[in-house]
Amino acid sequence: MTVLGRLALFFIIVPVVELVLLIQLGQIVGLWPTLALVIFTGVTGAALARLEGLRVLFQFRSELASGRLPGQALLDGISVLVGGAFLLTPGILTDFAGFALLLPTSRRWIQRRVRRALEGQIKAGTIRVVSMAPESSLDPRKGIVIEPKDG
Fold this sequence. Notes:
The chain contains five helices and two strands, in the order H-H-H-H-H-E-E. By secondary structure, the protein is mostly helical.
């Protein structure tokens, strides 16, 4: 299955599962508590994403100021951005994933797992690393793009 096919499947299955979970929760605790939970997680998630985003920005600036590449700060920034988007999306699973990406301990654990999975896919050949150069240059080491193999 191609990457586009997997994404389409993901964007169909996740909302359906979220809807089923919200309906079930609404039947158990009622409409108003369920709505309050969705609003609470959205507001709390937005506030936490803002705080973590500012912390990551300061970490990024600090690493640059000390002459280091801000690799971990970039990973944290991407994680906080995705986590914040998940928390703004109504649902139980997305809220869980969003909070996991915003909290530093669980975020590091997720980043380690994703890094290991990507390294494994590169070694197995399911992800191909392609070097690209500007058209005016013949040196292929100018940039690197990672693209998934289809099939």
